Amino acid sequence: MTEQRDRLTRWRLVLGGGDADGVTAGDGAEITLSADDLKRDGALESLYGGTRRGGLGGSSPKVARWLGDIRGYFPSSVVQVMQSDAMDRLGLSQMLLEPETMRAVQPDVSLVSTLIGLGRVIPEHSRETARAVVRQVTDDLEARLRQRTVQAVTGALDRAARTRRPRLRDVDWNRTIAANLGHYLPEHRTVVPERLVGYARRSTEIEREIILCIDQSGSMAESIVYSSVFGAVLASLSAVSTRMVVFDTEVVDLTDELDDPVDVLFGVQLGGGTDINRALAYCQQQISRPDDTVLVLISDLYEGGIAEEMVSRARSVVASGATMIALLALSDSGQPSFDAAHAAALAEVGVPSFACTPDLFPDLMAAAIERRDIGQWAAANEVVTTHDAPTSD
């Protein structure tokens, strides 16, 4: 009987809803769908439930999420068929074949998210058009974000290098005078500096190591786009060593691709399971100078691995002296969906958890480099952390 029900359930998924919702087994009992089967039914309905040509407008974020989610609902052979069908039913195949048509669509982060979600099913003869669209968006984002990021990070490195025992030629006289105004001698009309403020002699060596550890689940598509751009900018700074790691149930190190965000994005495979603990284990192995390391985990924290080990590993990273931050999203899309219990657990071990917009990310990195209190930074910038965020779905 169980085998018959499984077969009828599959037929119910094939036929869709409507009249098929009344399908019954041999004993007369109606076939009902489990929670997982309802998700599969929804994914199938989104693609095959009606005419969906040219639907890349306002629905793009949902399309990108769907492209990632189906990897968690179906085996890889089925996913490949569904993605290929999506290429046609969304009208994307034709658009990529006709560059002039593709240019008529406003390239944005949502469209890039859709393209990287389709990934390897994009026909070879259309890949150059897809890459051109992705490059246009990443170039525009880099132009918008590079200057502020470079200024914030280099400024933070300069401030972190200040010392109270500088060599004479390294004294910052304006700051030294300001710091010693209490020692002004009116009769001599001068300030007697009791302490000097200046800079330690700058080294040509790496001053900070930054690890971006990014969840590849479908909901993180926009965050991955922005992360690739920030990763490229940070990698261009000689005083910073930047590593970029993406993960689902496997871990892939894309550091060698960081000089080109487009290569990073086409190296990503959205969707599937999530093993944050395994990704953190890999990142932890890359930390050689904890006091000079900033580890940024970008994830909605829906852990598919062992949650207790994930939290324990995060505690170990913090205890080593490294700065660790969990970003629930790096995007402009508003309050993300995330696992509130895991976010709270990370906060308890010293890993602040919150969503961050791309415009605030450079300032966040500056605060982390200077080892400021990230909770205070978040409060000053009106960023809602998991300590005062409402429970999410």
What would you note in describing this structure?
The strands form three sheets. The chain has a six-stranded mixed β-sheet with strand order 7-6-5-8-9-10. It has a two-stranded antiparallel sheet with strand order 1-4. The chain is elongated and about 100 Å long. With 393 residues, the protein is α/β, with parallel strands linked by helices. The chain is 48% helix and 11% strand. It has 16 helices and ten strands. Strand 2 and strand 3 form a beta hairpin. Helix 8 packs across helix 10.
Quickly give the structural class.
alpha/beta
Can you write the helix and strand succession as a string? HHHHHHHHEHEEEEHEEHHEHEHEHH
Largest sheet: 6 strands, mixed
Mass-distribution shape: elongated
Using the CA coordinates, give the radius of gyration: 25 Å
Strands side by side in the biggest sheet: 7-6-5-8-9-10
Could you state the oligomeric state of the chains shown?
single chain
Termini gap? 36 Å
Percent strand: 5-15%
Total number of helices: 16
List the uncertain runs.
Answer: 52-61, 389-393
Query: What helical percentage do the residues reach?
Result: 40-55%
Give the mean pLDDT. 80
What's the total count of β strands? 10
Structure, briefly:
The protein has 393 residues and is α/β, with parallel strands linked by helices.
